[in-house]
Amino acid sequence: MRLADAGDRVMGKLVAAYGPEGALGQVRRGCLDPVFVEELAAVKGRPLDVRRLLEAWRARLPATDPIADLTEGERLGARLIVPGDLEWPTQLDDLGSERPLGLWLHGDADLRFSCLRSVAVVGSRAATPYGAHVAAEFGAGLSEAGWTVISGGAYGVDAAAHRGALAGVAQTIAVLACGTDIAYPAANQDLFAAIRSRGVVVSECPLGVRPTRLRFLVRNRVIAALSRGTVVVEAALRSGALNTAGHAVTLRRHLAAVPGPVTSENSVGCHRLIRRSEAVCVTSAREVIELVGAIGDDLAPEPRGPVLPRDALDDETRRVLEAVPARAGSGPATIAVAAGVDLLTALSSLGALAAAGFVERADQGWRLRRPK
């Protein structure tokens, strides 16, 4: 983890083929297995610059001190997990050669258990008030329903989703693009402390590693892989949230997007995902749960308008009611003609409508009852 950058596919394949000890031994000797090099070159379709790659890895060897890293992690309250550990989320195996070599965790929650029912909520750092409100509502709604909220701990949508989740009952997970001992952004330090007490802060970067633009993009694949689905709340055309959405599609995870004002630049990315049928349009946490949850068990109620008293009337009675004037009264025969029914039906309907409080008698016949 100290030698190779996060998401290094060559190191990932090397570890998968020879194990971490075998891979490290080859780096120390300064010579990779020729069979491995040939197979990798065949996959890539071009020769592999082994010398340059080994020089980059070996240049970091003198600065590595695993015992010091583990000791410092224990001092800070962080722990290291690797594939095969009980807490390791097996869904990360879907990343193949890009699977993290290990993860540093800082928090009270169990990562594997927390990710069993989890949703990633991502979006713009420069979120609009609308985006921040929606992210907080989604975070709170998912958490109240027992779903873990995963995000990146950044400004804007990420922070709002975490805070919304903290207002609920479930855990929340922040996946960082730096070491777990670094609060980035610094203004979210209190938020990270709250997440550690109610969830867990995750990073594949060793302690002390600072964030870079590339590490943010590489980090996004972990967010998508850990969760059962990703929701993009707000995203401009060049938003990093669309990078997370792309990983979700590649990993065959559920992808949803929240529509926004058509005049908002921050929602252009969401609208494009929906228009291209790459994402499902969602407007509430219940709809997200229906998308990522178990079939038949997590159905969202269909939105309905207000139920009015006249909704229970049959067609003939409703036509008679529509024919009754609001002010000056009309006789039953006039009402019957206007409603297109016979006189007996009109008289019967007027009696029922009067009993229900819809109409009343007037000097010249019947009229709509005036509300008190």
From TrEMBL:
Domain Smf/DprA SLOG: 80-291
Any Pfam family hit: DNA_processg_A
Transmembrane parts of this sequence: none
Gene3D superfamilies: 3.40.50.450
Stored SUPFAM superfamilies: MCP/YpsA-like
Assigned protein family: Belongs to the DprA/Smf family.
Name of the protein described by the UniProt record: DNA-processing protein DprA
